[in-house]
Backbone:
């Protein structure tokens, strides 16, 4: 630091030379220094005052702006903030392949009670019991007065019920807005949609979660906020679905069956255009599972027979033996096969109703008359190991991969050992149980030229490119055989002029719970392909314990029960799917030539 002397030497010497006082010079120097210090202090004070003014101005500006915003906004009740995660709402819609709504959301209200605010709990309990008949007035009053401060009364209310509760006028009754899942078509496609319920709940909103069907299988996709505005497109055709369900219900009633299932599948894409199970339910009011442990699963309307049902599907399996034998080069459609007798060890096999089809029949004729013995001989030529591998390649030995949570639990019942006896019985669908959907997918593989088809409920934009299971020629010959079954064999009731159908019937004795089989109860199945000249769809119909009483004798076989139901479904649904009926040309003698 350089210090400035108060008495500069030069000036002091000059003052002494001129006779001036040196003390005056020192006082003058001191005055100038003090004035400089005061100027610097004044500048610092002014800067501090300016800074304080700016701070006060900014604070008052912010406060004033906030007060103006509050004055211009709508009044709102104060709400306490919590640390819990916010409840996510806004579940995506579900639509069919044409954009028609199958599942959507509807704004509704829940009813809850702040018991400390109730004026007259007894009166409120009586009034609520009158509005909601399922509630008990005495139970409500006891719950209102047992010391709890909060109580849910109803998770969902109709607008009329909400108005009636509002008219009670008690301040302790409060409403909480929320979205609920709505199925506008009622029971239509109930087993596919499944249902939804509330998850996490608050007074302001509730989380909607899937509980069954595709609602649960695709729950993450439907709840994704990023896709809430994009509907989930299913492969279903709503009009075809309605037709299938109507015909199935009529068929079950007509043939006095316990239930049934229908699957309509595109053979190129694997898309399920319609899938129905009867009995059914309304997903808007999903019932509880059966409480009786002795009841069969199929007795419940919640049971999806098309996916969860695991049945012995009878002679519908015979076409697989023919297709594999032709694919391996063991036979051709015209190769003669022994249909006279078949024994494996001590087991002797016979035909249905002990029929005798003669010493031999061609492979095509074996399918046509549905010969157990002829099919068994084909299976023995194939061998157990190759047969089992073929069934697995077709998807018959594994749960269906379709997008339903119920499908994963429906594991086919497969023998632990696979001796020659099982090889024979499995060739005509006995001793081995699979789901109707697995069977439909296997038939779709044959109709698709031997390329495997995987069933799906999601809309596809192009055909599937699965692995080849059967050669194209063997698949084509198999479809030709299925046509002969309809024109000359056990499925003759499926013949119609408008659409050419091919298919195979299957009638299997129903197993008892404790072992063995019923003598008078069967599962009948008809697996069909149409139109046969260029296969587009596979249709599968399964009936549980059907009986046909129209003839002099009671008949239970698929040809008299499942086949007529399938024919009616084709007749009514094919035009809806865009398939034009074949029109026979008129007779020439019925025409009149006109020349102008």
Residues:
């Amino acid at each position: 630091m350089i210090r400035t002397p108060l008495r500069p030497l030069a000036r002091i010497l000059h003052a002494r030379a001129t006779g001036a006082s040196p003390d005056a010079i020192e006082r003058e120097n001191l005055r100038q220094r003090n004035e400089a210090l005061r100027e610097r202090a004044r500048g610092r004070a002014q800067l501090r005052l300016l800074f304080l003014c700016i701070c006060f101005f900014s604070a008052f500006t912010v406060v004033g702006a906030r007060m103006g915003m509050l004055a211009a906004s709508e009044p709102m009740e104060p709400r306490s903030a919590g640390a819990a995660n916010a409840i996510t709402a806004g579940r995506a819609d579900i639509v069919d392949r044409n954009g028609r709504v199958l599942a959507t959301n509807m704004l509704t209200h829940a009813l809850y009670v702040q018991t400390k605010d109730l004026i007259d709990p007894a009166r409120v309990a009586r009034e609520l019991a009158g509005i909601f008949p399922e509630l008990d007035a005495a139970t409500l009053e006891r719950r209102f007065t047992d010391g709890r401060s909060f109580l849910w009364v109803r998770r969902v209310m109709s607008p009329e019920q909400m108005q009636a509760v509002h008219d009670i006028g008690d301040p302790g009754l409060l409403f909480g807005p929320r979205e609920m899942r709505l199925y506008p078509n009622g029971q239509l496609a109930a087993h596919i949609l499944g249902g939804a319920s509330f998850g996490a709940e608050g007074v302001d909103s509730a989380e909607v979660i899937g509980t069954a069907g595709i609602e649960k299988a695709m729950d993450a996709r439907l709840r994704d906020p990023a896709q809430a505005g994009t509907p989930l497109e299913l492969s279903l055709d709503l009009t075809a679905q309605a037709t299938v369900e109507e015909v199935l219900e009529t068929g079950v009633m007509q043939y006095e069956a316990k239930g049934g299932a229908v699957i309509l599948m595109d053979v190129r894409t694997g898309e399920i255009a319609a899938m129905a199970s009867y009995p059914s339910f309304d997903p808007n009011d999903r019932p509880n599972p059966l409480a009786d442990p002795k009841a069969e699963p199929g007795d419940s309307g919640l049971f999806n027979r098309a996916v969860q049902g695991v049945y012995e599907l009878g002679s519908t399996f015979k076409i697989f033996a023919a297709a594999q034998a032709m694919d391996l080069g063991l036979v051709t459609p015209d190769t003669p096969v022994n249909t006279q007798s078949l024994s494996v060890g001590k087991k002797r096999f016979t035909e249905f109703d002990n029929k005798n089809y003669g010493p031999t029949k061609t492979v095509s004729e074996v399918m046509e008359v549905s010969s157990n013995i002829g099919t068994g001989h084909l299976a023995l030529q194939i061998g157990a190991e190759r047969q089992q591998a073929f069934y697995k390649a077709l998807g018959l030995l594994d749960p269906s991969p379709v997008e339903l949570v119920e499908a994963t639990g429906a594991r086919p019942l497969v023998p632990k050992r696979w001796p020659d006896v099982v090889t024979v019985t499995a060739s005509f669908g006995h001793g081995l149980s699979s789901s109707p959907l697995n069977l439909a997918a296997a038939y779709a593989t044959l109709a698709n030229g031997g390329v495997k088809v995987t069933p799906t409920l999601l809309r596809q934009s192009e055909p599937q490119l699965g692995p080849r299971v059967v050669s194209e020629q063997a698949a084509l010959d198999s479809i030709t055989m299925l046509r002969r079954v309809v024109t000359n064999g056990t499925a003759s009731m499926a013949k119609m002029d408008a659409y050419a159908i091919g298919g195979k019937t299957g009638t299997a004795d129903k197993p008892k719970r404790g072992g063995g089989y019923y003598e008078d109860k069967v599962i009948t199945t008809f697996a069909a392909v149409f139109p046969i000249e260029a296969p587009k769809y596979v249709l599968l119909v399964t009936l549980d314990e059907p009986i046909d009483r129209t003839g002099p004798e009671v008949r239970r076989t698929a040809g008299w029960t499942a086949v007529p139901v399938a024919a009616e479904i084709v007749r009514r649904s094919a035009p809806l799917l865009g398939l034009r009926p074949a029109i026979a040309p008129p007779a020439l003698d019925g025409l009149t030539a006109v020349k102008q």
Q: What stands out?
A: Confidence is low (pLDDT under 50) at residues 78-85.
